[in-house]
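# step 3/5: fold
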Amino acid sequence: MAADYLKEKKILLVDDEKEIIKMITEFLQEDGYSQIRAAGTVAEGLQAVREWQPEMAVLDVMLPDGDGFSLFEKMKEFTEIPALFLTARGEDEDRIQGLGLGADDYMVKPFLPKELLLRIGIILKRCYKDEDPLIQLAGSQIDLARAEVVKNGGRLPLTAKEYDILRALCRNAGRIVTIDQLCEAAWGENPFGYENSLMAHIRRIREKIEENPSKPVSLTTVKGLGYKLVMEDKRI
């Protein structure tokens, strides 16, 4: 079984069969995976990769507007994430092509959901084995496993919203996370109108993680775009 912090990884499912998507999503959720997004076409899959920045992909080979192989090649132009291919066909050529592109695994439909869960867990463990849920910043550490900030020998608990915001920032450490992305992480799929609340939460987070909250060095503002988390030793 995958470790708890691995089950927080963002998994993208690309398949035009809605029943397959529903089944995989339900089994992942039952097993504790909390970040799952589905797409039904190559175009939707690419959009999800650009906007959502998943950390693993499960790709169907046959899609309405192309195939999983071409989608994977396009994904690799701007991101490197592990991928598992699904197909209704069992030809060796498909398997060789998928693995030749750098895919991590390959399964033929129909498949046992428990086997898929096992393979997803193995891939995540192999690809993210060096991660440590303790994130080192300039003046503090973020302990995602405990939802706490370790600072000056003490521990400061994070609220649920602070945790959601920090988790999104940690997953994209060193990169700009837009205001809309952070609002969506904290308030769901309809994040509009929460900008002022986000600013208030950012201010309180800085009070917990920064040595000098009025001059932040770890949680910086990127004017007009969003925020960026600067880590001392990137481990997530």
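# step 4/5: annotate
Helices lie at 18-30, 42-52, 68-75, 92-100, 113-127, 160-171, 179-187, 195-209.
# step 5/5: archive (pending)
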